Backbone:
C-alpha cells in the first residue's frame, strides 16, 4: 500500500479549494478509503494516515480542533500542487 500516492490522489479532489478557508478532511478521507479497494481496514486510522501525509508534505496545516473536528488550511505549497495537477 502506497499511502503517499493515495494521499495525493485524495487531495486532488480539493482542486477548487481556497487557502483562506478551514477544511475538515476526515470525513472525505474516510469516504475515500471506504470506496477504494486498496485499503484493508477502511477505517479512521487509514483516513488519518492520508491526512498526516498531507501535513508532512506541508500541503495542509493544522489550525484548531473544533469539538470533534480537526480543521486544516491548505498551504501555498498545497495550492501550487493542486494548480499543477488540476487535469490529472
Residues:
Amino acid at each position: 500500500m502506497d499511502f503517499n500516492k493515495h494521499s495525493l490522489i485524495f487531495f486532488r479532489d480539493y482542486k477548487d479549494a481556497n487557502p483562506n478557508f478551514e477544511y475538515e478532511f476526515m470525513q472525505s478521507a474516510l469516504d475515500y478509503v471506504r470506496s477504494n479497494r486498496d485499503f484493508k481496514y477502511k477505517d479512521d486510522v487509514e483516513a488519518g494516515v492520508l491526512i498526516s501525509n498531507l501535513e508532512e508534505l506541508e500541503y495542509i496545516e493544522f489550525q484548531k480542533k473544533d469539538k470533534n473536528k480537526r480543521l486544516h488550511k491548505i498551504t501555498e505549497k498545497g495550492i501550487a500542487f493542486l494548480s499543477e495537477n488540476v487535469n490529472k
The CA atoms of residues 4 and 53 lie 6 Å apart. The chain has a mean pLDDT of 94.
